[in-house]
Structure prediction request, 470 residues.
Amino acid sequence: MNTQSANKPRTLGELKAAGWKSRSVKQELHDNLLKVLASHDDLFPGIIGYEDTVIPAISLALLARHDMLFLGEKGQAKSRIMRGLVRLLDPEIPYVAGSELHDDPLKPISQQARRLIAAEGDQTPIAWWPREQRYAERLAPGTKFADLIGEIDPSKLAMGTSMSAEDALHFGLIPRMNRGIFAMNEVPELDELVQVGLFNILEERDVQIRGFPIRFDLDIVILFSANPSTYNRSGKVIPQLKDRIGSMIRTHYPRDRETGIAIMEQESGIRLDGPYPVHVPLFMKEICEQVTIEARKSDFIDAQSGVSARFSIANYRTMIASARRRAAVLGEEHAVPRISDLAHLTSSSMGKLELDMMSSHQMSEEQVIDAVQVEAIKKVFDEYCDQHGFEDIAGIFGKGVSIEVGDMLPSSAYAEKLKRVPPAWEKAFEINPSHDAAMRASCVEFVLAGLHAHQKISRSAKHGRVSYQT
Prediction:
């Protein structure tokens, strides 16, 4: 039956006549996943780097009809994957119109829906619930029992409703997501009382509010997310709740730099064409992603917290923005990011790193950001140096040559400076062969920064300009 057609049932009688059959939400996900797998469609469009690890684990958990915990550091697409499960739901499902719990017309669980069906019979009105509305999520810090499970409604008690009756309850988010998906982010931060409420739902599928057990056969998929450092810490999550979560899905950061770059470019959402187009050389993309990789390895950054992919994305946007500003201000036709543009990454990096306060060598956040940038430049430079060799360029500086660079220096100025130095500089342009002045300026800065990272030449900065010399 095509529930999206104009003639979809509007009453319980019409729904029965159409042959609609009840199906649990876990069965719904199970069946629709099998269709996706059989058709070889992309299960999670836009998710890169999980094809052979996380996505197969999710498929198994769904086919096993499990509730799931996504365990990983920040910026590993946990929330995005949970939201992506919505596409495995049916386009829309019928429910008893007006029911708070979106009751299945053939298997109502609330007194409100049962009374309506008893009174109206086959004329009971039916509404349709689109899949986009069948997903809800909550961040654990500050979340109360009443938010998730529910509370006694004082106004209903004032009207004479018994405290032990279902009608006295004001339902929280989870009962209202009956027949849908609910995601609880950062579950270790939940109060123990709320964890007990979740345990009751996972185990008994009932709702207990202020000591009154209301038996509901809740039909819901519950997802959790957590950071390993807090989830595995003793006392943060009650053992009973851990034991009832069917599958644990371990996420991870990109396994290689190329994957990280693909994620960075996809998620940046920034157009490189239009007025003052930006041409980003590969080595600048590699450096931008390598900064994040070096941050994840840094002894000064809390490894348990992790460094989000958002760190790369924000820095990539800032790098492009700096290059585009230069082109607009200087009237250049297009822009090519340079190493000097990375000086602005402090603004997009601050606040995204959690420093290791137990480290024996304390550094400020700005110092750590500068240090990981130098390490990233050095790493990428070494890869290019092995291929091209820049020893002759380093030798130039032994003859007293000084070269000034800067993020607001015109590209033509680099060409003028290089006229006064030996032909050895032509080696630098093998990195990204081009006669374009902006691209050649970027290559020059990359080689200079790489030589400085290896302490072959010195560097001094003043008023936004950087000078390299012996």
In short: The two ends are 78 Å apart (CA to CA). The chain has two domains: 12-250, 257-469. The first strand starts at residue 68 and ends at 71. Residues 365-388 form the longest helix (24 residues).
